[in-house]
Specification:
The protein is 57% helix and 4% strand. It is mainly alpha-helical and 481 residues long. α10 packs parallel to α12 and α15 runs antiparallel to α16.
């Protein structure tokens, strides 16, 4: 930032310049400079519309557009000079435009207010951010599919209450996260669509006597025109939509991260994160910490806080612009930056991880197989509640004998229920358990293969998976390790 300049552009009504302390509090330029590319593109559309409507001459319109294109190049190349006394990004752009093209720059603001101008900048920012975040989500979904295919037959315990519940395929588990991210994509698309309305032409709140054409500027920017000028400058629903989508996405990433912190612990030993995505301890030489996943868990709280901050800012505002709305930007920028940082690291962190199939299969055995026996009895016609109690008594007996279900003596099986003397060989194994599932969407290899096929078809429609990529489960095999 360069030194302060004298007098704001709105200073005609005032007899003195703002106090320096107020100028610092009032200025948004320290953080809204990142809106500059969007602000300039919106101004270019406005300048062309002014010419098309005869509000300025064709020559003036062309001069404004050429000057703004030069400003845009400076912004993109990082050579634009910012000044705290500019107050906000709009004034900074107009000040630089005047330096380049002269007094014709003063006509650019005709028929426009900072109210519809900043609203447009935010619409464009949110639309762009939703697309970039969506691309990051697709990259993570692609990685989940690749890891699921590569490790298609590994079995691990599924958990309820963080207690071993039933064996499932690792690929089934990874594809559950795929489905969560697919829903996140829909929310991001809704936020992008909500941001596709141009408020330009609403002016301060009531419209303008100049014959502006909001449809022209909207079409220039690939957007739809607003309907109600007061709503156009007041609403920030599209900001909330993106913040909400990112908060839910953050919760999903946090849950995934929590699982990886468990899986990579010495207590679980299911997986190992690549050294490139881990860190150590300043005092304990043996430590290898899953910091990236911990940060995903931690940053989700910030995302929820950012959403709450903007909700609370908006809840008491009457229609029209209030300076409180300046506070919508920093939470929005923080959320976008945080989510993009997490998504940048996640795909390769998934791809480079290694799994301990033996350890996972060992953990998936034991009492996690109990439900197979209850379902076996139910299939034999035993009422399920009776089957449940019989197997529960068997589990308690195994604890007394200090044996697993796989190793329980045949006479103990028969004592628990006569029909258990007929348990098929191989049922009481993790692989036998997953093969025994029949319902759609289950963890059976055939079902997971179909889930993989659907996931890949979805990614192909989104441009997220190379054509022809296949894996063992997607080929329809029923083998399971």
């Amino acid at each position: 930032m360069s030194e302060r300049r004298k007098g704001p552009f709105w200073g005609g009504r005032f007899g003195a310049s703002p106090a320096e302390a107020f100028e610092i509090l009032n200025a948004s330029i320290p953080f809204d400079i990142r809106l500059a590319p969007h602000d300039v593109r919106g101004s270019i559309a406005h300048a062309r519309m002014l010419g098309a409507q005869g509000i300025v001459s064709d020559e003036e319109s062309a001069t404004l557009v050429l000057g703004l294109e030069a400003v845009l190049r400076e912004v993109e190349e990082g050579t634009f000079s910012w000044d705290l006394s500019d107050e906000d990004v709009h004034t900074a752009v107009e000040r630089r435009l005047k330096e380049l093209v002269g007094d014709v720059a003063l006509k650019l603001h005709t028929g426009r207010s900072r109210n519809d101008q900043v609203a447009l900048d935010l619409h464009l920012f949110v639309r762009d951010a939703a697309e970039r975040i969506g691309a990051g989500v697709l990259a993570a979904m692609r990685a989940l599919v690749e890891v699921a295919e590569t490790n298609g037959y590994l079995v691990l315990p599924g958990y309820t209450h963080l207690q071993r519940a039933q064996p499932i395929l690792l690929s089934h588990h990874l594809l559950a996260h795929f489905e969560a991210l697919r829903r996140d994509l829909r929310r991001l698309e809704a936020a992008r669509e909500a941001a596709g309305v141009s408020p330009l032409g609403a002016a301060a709140l009531a419209g303008t006597p100049h014959p502006v054409d909001p449809r022209l500027t909207a079409e220039e920017l690939g957007m739809e025109p607003f309907t109600n000028s007061l709503d156009a400058v007041s609403e920030r629903d599209f900001v909330l939509d993106l913040l909400y989508a990112c908060a839910v996405l953050g919760v999903h990433l946090s849950r995934l991260g929590e699982e990886w912190m468990l899986w990579t612990s010495a207590e679980f030993r299911f997986a190992t994160i690549d050294d490139a995505y881990s860190s150590g301890s300043s005092i304990m030489p043996q430590k290898k910490n899953p910091d990236a996943y911990e940060l995903m868990r931690g940053k989700s709280g910030r995302l929820i806080g950012d959403l709450n901050a903007v909700l609370i800012t908006l809840k008491g505002l009457p229609l029209g612009y209030s300076k409180d709305l300046q506070e919508d930007k920093e939470p929005l920028f923080d959320t976008v930056d945080s989510v993009l940082a997490m998504l940048a690291v996640l795909p390769e962190m998934l791809r480079t991880a290694r799994f301990d199939g033996e350890r996972m299969a060992e953990a998936a055995g034991g009492f996690a197989l109990a439900t197979e026996l209850a379902d076996f009895l139910a299939a034999k016609g035993v009422p399920f509640r009776e089957a449940h109690h019989a197997v529960g008594r068997l589990v308690r007996r195994c604890e007394e004998l200090v044996v697993s279900l796989e190793d329980v003596p045949q006479d103990e099986l028969a004592a628990a229920h006569p029909a258990l003397s007929e348990v098929p060989e191989g049922l009481l194994t993790p692989g036998g358990s997953v093969h025994n599932k029949r319902s759609a969407g289950s963890t059976a290899p055939g079902s997971v293969g179909e889930q993989l096929r659907q996931a890949k078809a979805f990614l192909k429609t989104m441009g997220g998976l190379p054509e022809g990529q296949t894996g063992p489960l997607s080929e329809g095999s029923d083998r399971c390790g």
